[in-house]
Amino acid sequence: MTTPNFVILYVDSPEKSGAFYASLLGREPVESSPTFVMFVLDKGFKLGLWSRHTVEPAAAATGGGGELVLAVESAAAVDATHIDWSGRGLNILQAPTDLDFGRTFVALDPDSHRLRVYWPFEGAQG
């Protein structure tokens, strides 16, 4: 079976969103144009930012219909990331909280894509 290794988010401005994610991820994109920006992350995972105005075939979906999930190494890292992102002005939808699967919070990127940061509790899938 194949394993997904690439997520594309449809964005209003790939250059603006690329700058946002470069700052958030602490790395520069490997590809950048006015219509598409791509990051290669750990273990080869790719994040693409494609202009919602030029994607083919045209997409009807906008941000908020899914989540980009980022795992961190501890519950304290969840809280520290929340403080960092709040300080950057990200819109926080859910403050750090403990749910069934672990400690988590949710923020929005500039295109209203949900960004979930979490640390799984022992025994939880993650």
Task: Summarize the structure in words.
By secondary structure, the protein is an alpha/beta fold. Helix content is 20%, strand content 37%. The chain has a 4-stranded mixed β-sheet with strand order 1-4-3-2, with helices on one face. It has a 4-stranded mixed β-sheet with strand order 5-8-7-6.
Question: What key phrases describe this protein's structure?
Answer:
126 residues, alpha/beta, four-stranded mixed β-sheet
Summarize the helices and strands and which ones pair or pack.
Elements lengths: L5 E6 L2 H12 L5 E2 L3 E5 L5 E6 L15 E5 L3 H13 L3 E9 L2 E7 L5 E7 L6
Parallel strand pairs: 1-4, 5-8
Antiparallel strand pairs: 2-3, 3-4, 6-7, 7-8
Name the average pLDDT.
93
Give the spatial strand order of the biggest sheet: 1-4-3-2
Helix content range: 10-25%
Instruction: Work out the strand percent.
Output: 35-45%
Q: Which overall shape is indicated by the principal axes computed on the Cα atoms?
A: globular
* Distance N to C terminus: 20 Å
Structural class: alpha/beta
* Individual helix count: 2
Main sheet, how many strands, which sense, barrel?
4 strands, mixed
Q: Total strand count, please?
A: 8
Order of helices and strands: EHEEEEHEEE
In the predicted model, the low-confidence regions spanning at least 5 consecutive residues are: none
CA gyration radius, whole angstroms = 15 Å
